[in-house]
Amino acid sequence: MRSDVTIAPFKGIWPRIHESAFIAPGCRIIGNVEIGPDVSIWYNCVIRGDANSIRIGARSNIQDGSVVHCDSPKPGMHDGFPTVIGEDVLIGHMAMVHGCTLMDRSFVGLGAIVMDGCVVEEDAMLAAGGLLSPGKRIPSRQMWIGQPARYARELDDAQLIDMQRGVAAYVRNGREHKAALDDMLLHGAA
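Given the sequence above, the corresponding structure tokens read:
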């Protein structure tokens, strides 16, 4: 483990990180977290699975400075909310994702907040700066904007293709960053 990344257990549960994932310097990954193949977690992100679990599917990316957390059970109210991030999900810089479900190919824009019990369906988008308040659901192929977020419009096929190009670009970029950091460690520059 590199000294510039914190990967730590909580209550005896260690994060499980696929060997192909890229974890950038400055990241903190704690507890009940599972990170899938070709995921990229960018510089200075915090992913804290202490109150519940966090699952991040293949090829998803969590961009610089973002925070991913989960919600603990509330007796008499609910059993808590894990955070489930599907495959091929884009999460923009400085986003906050908390106790929610981001389905495959969804998009959370820069600085957006997704709160407890929310669902962003397949091919749906919460635009930059949006605030999805607790329990809200963005249906497939819709874009929501604002604080609180509300329906703005449908996403067309070209936008969905562009989102998947973004996923592919982040997979490539993550592999390149991982290789560069591995090379630096191999040659003693870290």
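Residues 6-186 form a domain with the UDP N-Acetylglucosamine Acyltransferase; domain 1 fold (CATH 2.160.10.10). Try to locate this feature in the token string yourself.
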